[in-house]
Amino acid sequence: MLDKEFITIDSHCHAGESWYEPIEALRFHLDESQINKAVLIGHMGAYQNNDYLLECKNNFPDRFAVVGVFDLDNALDKNDDLNNINLDKFDGVRISAGNIIKPEYHSVLGIISELGLPISCLGEWPEFNSHSFLQIAAENPALNIVIEHLAGIGHDSDYQKEYCQKSKQFSNYDNIYIKIPGLGEINTKPDILFRKSAFDNKSDHLLEITLRNFGSKRMMWGSDYPPVSSREGYVNSFKEIVNLAVFQNHSDIRNIIGGTAYKLFWKNNL
To answer: Is cis: bond before 103, omega within 30 of 0?
Structure first.
């Protein structure tokens, strides 16, 4: 059972007009699970949807933070002034792991770092498990990079095994954070479902390794709503993480379900 003093935050949600669900659907799930805040993550290619997400933030003050997605390749090709993108309206920027390592992105990363914005970084495990990615973190120590979806390992057994063996490398970088998803993202659906948990401690080792290598101050839970609804569902995504034995230390669960995300995405409130 969570204390009332906890700030609860879902660090990875989507909303939109032409794709995914409107903000009202997300608000319903947040209210039902008594989650205080959420980070709205722009979905790739939906550049105009940034305006919708900012409207959501303005309509519900202090409930939402917005991580925008931008056509940075096009802006760089045209030598556009990146300051015209108005990054200062946002609480973070979403960039893929494939793009963040490109030399032409160095100027972009510099601007983002100067603004104090974190990067929410999507990709698959081989992209994060690379010297090039770690080098970006090393060269930009003031730039906070949040790895999405537990480093994109999914339920690929090879990725998971290698993650357990090699994720210790991230412990050396205080500016690399990680989002842990609902357990349905890193497990296959059982053939037979019962009323109890569908996963039965199957992810404990993965999450123990993550806690050991990142520490809870660099970890945050993100549901991946609404795709999570096609897996275990929103309520189960939150409930399974909260009830895991590996996260029963008071400080750890406090960080993972809200404290870490609040520190990164609500900086103006600190």
So the answer is: no
Least confident span in 52-56, 210-214, 246-250: 246-250
Residue 27, in any domain of the structure: yes
Cα(211)–Cα(214) distance, integer angstroms: 5
| Amino acid of residue 207 | L
Cβ–Cβ under 8 Å, residues 255 and 210: no
Work out how many domains the chain is built from and give that number: 1
Cβ atoms 145, 176 nearer than 8 A: yes
Triad 149, 173, 91: Cα angle to 5°: 55
Contact 121, 112 (CB under 8 A): no
179 closest CA partner among 122, 247, 109, 99: 122
Residues in Cβ contact with 125 at an 8 Å cutoff, skipping those fewer than 6 apart: 151, 152, 153, 156, 159, 162, 163
Q: What tokens does 210 get?
A: 């993550």
Phi/psi at 14 (5° precision): -120, 150
Range of the domain at 195: 9-269
Q: For residue 165, tell me if it sits in a domain.
A: yes
Beta-bridge partners for 68: 93
- Is the confidence at residue 209, as pLDDT, over 70? yes
Query: Residue 1 domain-assigned?
Result: no
Q: Residue 189: which CATH number? A: 3.20.20.140
pLDDT at 79 > cutoff 90: no
For residue range 92-135, what is the model confidence (pLDDT) as tens digits?
999 999 999 999 999 999 999 999 999 999 999 999 999 999 99
Sole residue written with tokens 């053939």 = 191
Q: Which residues pair with 67 in a beta bridge?
A: 41, 92
Residue 4 lies in a domain: no
Q: What are phi and psi of 74, to 5 degrees?
A: -65, -40
Measuring CA to CA, which residue among 118, 135, 134 is closest to residue 166?
A: 134
**What average pLDDT does the structure give for the chain?**
93
